[in-house]
Design goal:
The chain is built from eleven helices and 14 strands. It is of the alpha/beta class. It folds into two domains: 97 residues, ATPase, nucleotide binding domain (Nucleotidyltransferase, domain 5, 2-Layer Sandwich); 176 residues, Nucleotidyltransferase, domain 5 (2-Layer Sandwich), CATH 3.30.420.40. A hairpin with a 4-residue loop joins strand 2 and strand 3. The radius of gyration is 22 Å and the shape is elongated. It comes from human gut metagenome. Keywords: Kinase, Transferase.
Length: 286
């Protein structure tokens, strides 16, 4: 919003309503300007603890409350299909539309990570560790995000910018293969914990817990004995150790995590799941 205000003031002056992409679709279906708390948490305009728009942030961004959507819990009904939308979709106006949720909050609900003390790891293009809580908590160093959860409670989340995308980059661009499983076959159990090659997964900077857009990836510890499999293993382990960085912040806050669910494309790899369990020293369940 501030960028638009400073760089495109003529467009900023025309803004009538502010909404996220999914909420625009809901608006077209119902005519209701709405947003859920979990997705709104990432807008920097929400008072996450008190579940209302922040007057301080609205003032900073020069945004009026009437421009912002009405807030709902993810499971609440925001409206019904309009006659126009019902006709276009082949449905009736009795069809109810719920507020929905942000991507990671929805994934957490899908893996059963709700209530107090649940944990979910997502190995997608980016990677997240998502910890559900009934109480609002803040990491004083801002290494983890404090958001509202889709279950009506709260959650802490660490987000690394490059997770499964690191493996995709290594396989597709560097090795030049789509057969990820075959490349992982030489990495047997006896190799785990014995690799002398290390990888830092900062292909696009980093977000949690090292908020640094200039951070960059690298391999360390290579020698004349280093093999392709060693480097493949290092990529998988590097992502796991970056996830542990976020996990350690949560532990420092007194959160006791003994197991986690895992989802995302990277979770399809049994080897990567095993590495994640070893590095975090907790049970990892699909």
């Amino acid at each position: 919003m501030l960028w638009v205000k400073e760089n495109e003031p003529e467009n900023f002056a025309k803004i009538a309503k502010i909404m996220l992409p999914k909420d625009y679709i809901a608006y077209k279906m119902t005519g209701v300007h709405s947003c859920d708390y979990s997705d709104a948490s990432g807008m920097l305009l929400l008072d996450v603890k008190n579940k209302c728009w922040s007057k301080e942030m609205m003032e900073i961004c020069d945004v009026k409350e009437e421009q912002l959507p009405k807030l709902f819990e993810s499971y609440e009904v925001t409206g019904s299909l309009t006659e126009e939308a019902a006709a276009a979709l082949g449905l009736t106006t009795n069809c109810k539309i719920a507020a929905g949720a942000g991507d990671n909050a929805a994934a957490a609900v899908g893996t059963g990570t709700v209530g107090d003390g649940g944990c979910n790891i997502s190995l997608g293009t980016s990677g997240t560790i998502f910890i559900s809580s009934k109480e609002f908590g803040v990491d004083r160093f801002n290494a983890l995000h404090s958001f509202d959860h889709a279950d009506g409670n709260f959650h802490l989340m660490g987000c690394m910018l490059s997770a499964a995308s690191c493996n995709k980059w290594w396989m597709d661009e560097i090795i030049g293969t789509k057969d990820y499983g075959k490349e992982q076959e030489p990495i047997t159990d006896d190799k785990l914990g014995e690799n002398n090659v290390y990888y830092l997964p900062y292909l696009m900077g980093e977000r949690s817990p090292h908020n640094n857009p200039d951070a960059r990836a690298l391999f360390i510890g290579m020698s004349m004995d280093t093999t392709r499999a060693d480097m493949t293993q290092a990529v998988l382990e590097g992502v796991a150790f970056a996830m542990r960085d976020c996990y350690e912040i949560a532990k420092d806050l007194g959160i006791n995590i003994t197991e986690t669910k895992i989802c995302g494309g990277g979770a399809k790899s049994p080897l990567w799941r095993k590495i994640m369990a070893n590095v975090l020293n907790i049970n990892v369940n699909i």
